[in-house]
Amino acid sequence: MEMRNDLREMDEGGSDPDSRQPDDANAARAPGAPARKAEVARLNPHDGYPVLRTLARSPALVDSKPFHGTCLALLLHPRRSLKATLATLCALGADPPDITLLYKDYRYPERKEVLEWATTAGVRTAPLSDLKVQVAAFEARLNGRRWLALEDGGHWAMEAYRRPLLLSSAIGFVEQTTRGIWTVERSGVQLIKPHLSLPASVIKKTFECDFVGEAVTLSLKSHMGGALAGATVAVLGAAGTIGAAVAESLRQAGMRVYAYDSSPPPYWALTKHGRITVCASKAEAITGRDVVVGATGGTVLELDDLRWLKDGVLLASASSEQVEFPLALLRQFCPCPLPWSTSGVGATNGEVFTLPAGRRIVLLDGGRPINLGMAGSPEAECFDLIMALLAAGAADMAGGFYADSAGIIDDFDQVCERHNLDGLYRALHPEVNQ
Question: Whole-prediction pTM value?
Fold first, then answer.
């Protein structure tokens, strides 16, 4: 109860100051050493996230406290919206010591601040690399209590299906990404729990794609500066909602776009703008281009594709994982890649791999999504809605709404309607023209 009150008090504080954090914020606090608790407690986790703040004050949810007595397993990005999400979950009954947060180790500028805030509040945090250890510890702490996961990538779900006792007490899983749904669907296990799928929702596709396209473009501009206008770029996976938005944003920024998708819908080529060249093959799309952007959610370049790449080409991911480019293959050819960076403000570093033929490939940010990990990148306003959707869907699941369901469930548009999140987003973010 004391920890939950701490989070409520934080929500009454002022806006976030600049981050001034120690090297590692993910380690648990030493007993009796609250670190900077008084300072951290003054921060307002909902600052900039009015939809999440409003959801945290929903009379129906606050009165029912859907997360009371429920353990939560999270795998989310350590962005500032995560603070607002944690505060909302706790306002709806979750107890911070019953929350385990695993995070992807992307180079967000606010990562240390967010993780310190979470650990100070009592949330258990650890990097994704500690997944198996943390899952075992989480199971031991459960002691038969019910739990649910909010995640990005299907990691908690797959570990649960390997552990019958852990799975038996699971309420279900709330998944943020297409890749997470693919992981679950392709696993071959019988899905006996509900898996609420956010990427299938119309509302997420409507609000998120343009923001991703803009973030990819801004990141490439930080690398290329004035050389971006007129440069050539291949967008692979361009028939998907994210890929199409990336291609259009890069076109508007002045790049010459060559688009390819391995399984486009029949009408796809007819819907492209005139200055986007739709290619019949991957080789046609990538040959001699200055930049290759992968937006497929899978590995987009194979061994045979490397011969078509231009010397000095930039490889950039717009996915949700380090999956677009063959990292193991590149490291086999070049075990010790050279560091690469630009002097641009907010630029993300890269690595230069020299292939046997002598051509160089620049992999930006270790193959991580440049729309997520570029240093200094602001978080798009749409994450207020996306994280509110995740929290509301989890609240409905914890409240028994999907008790008789199993398998992949496409219900987030109904979640949005039940909680009026679309209307709240439009009213509370009038600057967004959606």
Answer: 0.74
